[in-house]
Amino acid sequence: FGMFFMSEYANMIAASAMIVTLYLGGWALPFVTATGVWGGVLSIAVFWTKTLAVIFVFIWVRWTLPRFRYDQLMSLGWKVLLPLSVLNLLAVAWIVASKGTP
Question: Global pTM?
Answer without folding.
Answer: 0.66
